[in-house]
Amino acid sequence: MGNSFGCSASGERLVSAARDGDLVEAKMLLEFNPCLAKYSTFGGLNSPLHFAAAKGHNEIVALLLENGADVNSRNYCGQTALMQACRYGHWEVVQTLLLFRSNVIRADYLSGRTALHFAAVNGHARCIRLVVADFVPSVSYEVISSQTNGERGSSSNLRNKYDQPALSKFVNKAADGGITALHMAALNGHFDCVQLLLDIHASVSSVTFHYGTSMDLIGAGSTPLHYAACGGNLKCCQILLARGASRLTLNCNGWLPVDVARIWGRHWLELLLAPNSDLVLPTFPPSNYLSLPLMSVLNIARDYGLQPSTATSDDSNICAVCLERACDVAAEGCRHELCVRCALYLCSTSNIPSEMAGPPGSIPCPLCRHSIISFNKLPGSPEKELKLHLSLGLCTPCMLHHHDPDTPTATCKSEIRKNRVAAVSSDLLCSVSCSPFHSVAIPLCTCNDESCPSLELQEREMQGVSSDSHGTSVEQDKLEGPRLERVSCSRLFWNRRSCHREHQCNSEINA
């Protein structure tokens, strides 16, 4: 679609504008022909939306979506724009895509990875907090516990209910080979992501599949602790053990986590991971990237849209943060008023330690530092919706949450009829596909068209000493010892056809 001779030249100009961030050129082309928003490059590798999302050009992403681009469109590898934004850590683009109801549970064709996997493997905690926003309600943990243990009430509004099984199912969704987002974050030593995933019910006991992999040097049947032992990050191992991970779990190779640490040269972990270890584990507070108010303000932004700058001398209710827009939301508790754009930015970026803000996951008010758990819409504000199209009607809640018997499902059915296999949930299919997702090949493929480097060459190249990824102290670096770089793809770990397909899409974006 969109590749005919009549519009291919204009389509390529739009692709170049989306890649380079040329907003003026993109506006001119879309004003001339709005259908160009659905253009895709030769062979369906990528659309302009994929280019803009991968490069972090948020204004162009919004422009394409407003002109009819499908927020859930896939490239040749089955990856959506949300996956590309999470891959490169462009949280503002992720936010915009979620406002247009991007489907967060879609998985790619190659390895069954979701946007959560792409964010976890590269350590983008802000992207993770946005991707799970529709599953974490804007209520205190005490209310969550009471709803989980007692009556949930008669309200049919999904925003006011806490569906813990849906959250756990999404966070623990396995890619090919049984790899979860927690496995990925633990392997690469992204402590902030590991901590956040554990706080939103990621399972420390999930194991990789006993089938579906041709070679796995960590071993099938491995837990996130096995992967953390391979990655060599001390804090990741400590928090996994503090959250209930077992040192005595054997994988299919008969290896304990301490055996994996020895095999991969992580000798500084042996004392911690020893089966009879008596080391005292540190206490870890809740993650600084929890954001309870995010769900409430995200839904308000979806229903009412984001205001443009409308401040004038006659305005008496101007947002005290930006001094540009009128206030349209109020913080529950302190009742300080903000514009929805500032509230959304605050919930997406704040990482204040929870002991300073109040209840875990609350956000401090920028005006009085009172802890905010949710936002409410101010009465009297005119309702104005984002320009959503039929292709954007399939949202996350209708995919994972249970429907009432009388709830119509015409939107979901029409989406399935329209996109056929592309829109069918991967939960209905076997989790292992023809191209296995090998555990050591979790990081993105960086090889070229030539043969990938051998394992021996990688091991020689990865013997350097590097500092901790989150800027820990020198003493912490000495305790952890040397860390290997992220493992790139190898013919021992990755299916060559899958590797080549993803390389095609990535090289087109990064050209």
From TrEMBL:
Keywords: ANK repeat, Metal-binding, Repeat, Transferase, Ubl conjugation pathway, Zinc, Zinc-finger. Transmembrane segments: none annotated. It catalyses: S-ubiquitinyl-[E2 ubiquitin-conjugating enzyme]-L-cysteine + [acceptor protein]-L-lysine = [E2 ubiquitin-conjugating enzyme]-L-cysteine + N(6)-ubiquitinyl-[acceptor protein]-L-lysine. InterPro entries: Ankyrin-SOCS_Box, Ankyrin_rpt, Ankyrin_rpt-contain_sf, RING_XB3-like, Znf_RING, Znf_RING/FYVE/PHD, Znf_RING_CS. Coiled coil: none annotated. One of its GO terms (molecular function) is zinc ion binding. It is an enzyme of class 2 (transferase). Its EC number is 2.3.2.27. Residues 319-369 form the RING-type domain. It holds the Pfam family RING_XB3-XBAT31. This is RING-type E3 ubiquitin transferase.
